[in-house]
Amino acid sequence: MYKHLLFLLRQLDNAGDNKSRWVIGFFGWLIKLAFVKEVRLSMMMVGHTHEDIDAVFRRVSEYWSRK
Q1: For residue 30, what are the contacts with CB-CB under 8 A and spacing of at least 6?
Q2: Cα separations (Å) of 66 from 56, 58, 59, 61, 63?
Q3: Rounded distance, CA 38 to CA 66, Å?
Q4: Do residues 39 and 31 touch, judged by C-beta distance below 8 A?
Q5: How many Cβ atoms sit within 10 Å of the Cβ of residue 1?
Q6: Is the pTM of this model over 0.85?
Q7: Which of 67, 61, 64, 3 lies closest to 36, judged by CA?
Q8: pLDDT tens-digit map of 45-57
Q9: Helices within 1-67 (DSSP H only)
Q10: Mean pLDDT of 6-21
Q11: Which pLDDT band holds residue 1 (cuts at 50, 70, 90)?
Q12: CA pair distance 62, 57, nearest whole angstrom
């Protein structure tokens, strides 16, 4: 038998499109259809990244912008 999730935890970057009504509405839709009981969203702090390659690219970009 398929069991539904109690909660869904999503970590998103702090971009505006991740806070749009479509993204938030999608998670609300999952709750309404009883796929999950609760959705927990976590946003990264501004200026921080969750991908190592993004951090490396930022340093390279800063280096080249000084030249």
Answers
A1: 8, 36, 39
A2: 16, 13, 11, 9, 6
A3: 46
A4: yes
A5: 2
A6: no
A7: 3
A8: 776 655 666 667 7
A9: 21-32, 52-65
A10: 83
A11: very low
A12: 9
Residue whose pair of structure tokens reads 């946003």 in the numeric block: 43
SS3 breakdown of the chain: % helix, strand, coil, rounded to 5? 45, 25, 30
- 4 residue type, one letter: H
For residue 61, give the amino acid letter. Answer: S
Tokens at 63, concatenated: 């280096």
Residue at token pair 């398929």: 2
Query: What does the pLDDT look like over 17-34, one tens digit per residue?
Result: 878 899 999 999 999 998
pLDDT, average across residues 61-65: 82
